[in-house]
Amino acid sequence: MMISFHDKAWQDVTTPTLVVNPDVARANIRSMADKARQNHVKFRPHFKTHQSAHVAQWFRDEGITAITVSSVSMAKQFAAAGWQDITIAFPVNVRELKDIDALAQQVTLSVILEREEVARVLAENLSTTVKVWIKTDTGYKRSGVVWNDDKSMTQLAKTITAQQHLHFEGLLTHAGHSYRARGREEILSIYTETVFRLQHAKQTLERAGLEVKVSLGDTPSCSVAETFTGIDEIRPGNFVFYDLQQFVIGSCREEQLALAVACPVVAIYPERGEIILYGGAVHLSKDFAEVDGVKQFGSVANLEKRGWRLLRDCYVSAVSQEHGIVKASRELLRTTRVSDLLFVIPAHACLAVNNLEGFRTQRGERF
Ligand code: PLP
User: Of 217, 333, 317, which is closest to residue 270 (Cα–Cα)?
Assistant: First the structure.
């Protein structure tokens, strides 16, 4: 069902707009929080996915008190909203040491780093204690000390523990290569390998006499794994909304999709089988999901009572700055008019949220 121009309930939507289904998002939060509780691991959800004090309250309602963010400015935003236990899961940027020190005086602050010189300069610039995790590369190859580089790992951990104002927490990884998996089996096998690699690094440091916690956080692993043996903390973020990428790789079910972008239809080309949306790269982002070798920047979906239902064979096949090109089924072409709104489940929810300001629910509330 697309939304007609004459539908009064949607006339406030004039440009690409995030539409969230709070019931679905809250159910996603509850289910991850329950899984963490049952497995006795700390749940420290990543708030970069929603970046919203309103959505943050849904987490508070589930008893969550510790959070992850990806920048110092996001840490400040949530500290101002009353969050007291914050991990900045992005390598310490030494140009922001003053802000890091100021934050550490306000909240229980954890940071991640991977270089000895950063540990030293951080310690020199702090006036209070900060918890420090070693960013560990367990296979993603983005950043971090490589999990089996025993020598560098031990040296860095010893340097951290030797500094005043630094409290060594343990090893933190983001197994982002789980996004390249296809299906639950492959995700599970990356998860199992990640745990093995973290355990190897942990044992290396324990042999050097250190106490070591381990923290991992990627939505595919945290969604598919049933148990978290050998893990102290999980930090998924995307799971609150999920998205087309997660659906395609098998880390969520259709009824868990909690977020769409409502996009105005601006042109229709029946002969090309295409619909043009006001909804391009600056709204949906340039991230895509790959379905049978075809790039999909989002999937068109129907809004139903319980949530969104993906419309097979109706997807955003290309984006330019403001335009999104939809490959449409005959039925969608037949029933769509210029000025309607189509719902697009974005390929990557975190980026779409970052691009668009504020949420609307399917019932019309704004926050
Ligand atoms: N931790 C770190 C360091 C991350 O970079 C991310 C996401 O990029 C997460 C946790 C959350 O992972 P996801 O977005 O898969 O939920």
Answer: 333
